[in-house]
C-alpha cells in the first residue's frame, strides 16, 4: 500500500492537518467549503486534488493561512488589468508574527489581487499593504484541478522605496535558527525575549546543522538537531547506513557529525519523536524533494 493510501485510511474524515510532500492536507470534510471556486464531485476528489497540489502551492501563504499568522506584505506592481479589476504583484515579501509574538519572513514570486479601483496602482511601483490569505481552485492547467493560496481584500496600501526579499540562504538560516531554539536545552525556560543559552554553543550548533546539506533545510537537518540533543538513534539501535540510500553521502556525514560531538546525557526518546513530529512552529523545507 502506498504512503498516500495509508495516510488516507488513517485520517479519512478526521479534523486533521497533515504536512505532506511540500504542502498541507486538510482532512476535515468541512474544509471543502473554504476553497473559493471549488467544485468537487466528492470528498475523495477533494483529497486527491489536495494531494496533487502539494509542492505546487505558495508555501508561505499556506503557512500563514493555517497557522493564523499576522502578516504584512510588500510587493512590486507588475501589471494592472482595469477590465477585470485585478493587479499583478511580483517579488512578494511576507513579514509575519506567530501567535507567541516571534517574527518570521518569507517570499513568493507573484499573486493577482482583485481591487475596486485599479487607478491607484502603477506598474513598477513598490507598495506595502495588508491582505487576507485565502484558498482557491485553479482550473485548466496541465495538472488539472489544483488548490492554491492567494491574497484578497487589500488594504492599508502605502507606497515605499525599494525593498529586498529574503534570499534562499536567509530562508534556510531562519529555519535552522528556529530549529536550534526548538531543540535547545533551555527551550521550556526561555521567555523568547533574550537567549539564555551559551551563545558560542548556539552559533556552533547553527553552523553544524548548516554543514549537513549546505543550502538546504530538510527532514535530515531536523533529525540531526534532535539526535545531537536527545541521542534517540543512539538509544534505539544506532545510525544505520545503507549504500543504496540516495542520501547515503549525507547520512554518512550525519553519522560523522554525531560521532564528533561528545555525549553528555541522553534525552527521552518518545519526547524527542513527539516534538520532532509536532513542532511548536511550522517548518518550511527548502531544497528537499522528499517533503
Concise overview:
The chain is built from nine helices and eight strands.
Short key terms for the protein model shown above:
single chain, 291 residues, alpha+beta, two-stranded antiparallel sheet, 8 strands, 27% strand, globular
Descriptive report:
The chain has 291 residues and is α+β, with helices and mostly antiparallel strands. It contains nine helices and eight strands. Strands 3, 4, 5, 6, 7 and 8 form a six-stranded mixed sheet that branches. The chain has a two-stranded antiparallel sheet with strand order 1-2. Helix 6 packs parallel to helix 8. It starts with a helix and ends in a 14-residue tail after the last helix. The mean pLDDT is 92.
Helix-strand blueprint:
Blueprint: H1 3-11, E1 17-20, E2 23-26, E3 35-36, H2 43-53, H3 59-66, E4 70-81, E5 86-97, E6 103-114, E7 126-141, E8 144-160, H4 168-182, H5 199-212, H6 219-230, H7 232-235, H8 248-260, H9 269-277
Helix pairs in contact: 4-5, 5-6, 6-8, 6-9
The strand count comes to 8
- Structural class by helix and strand composition: alpha+beta
Radius of gyration: 21 Å
- Helix coverage percent: 25-40%
The main β sheet shows up as: 6 strands, mixed
Whole-Å distance between the termini? 19 Å
Oligomer state of the chains in this structure: single chain
Total helical elements: 9
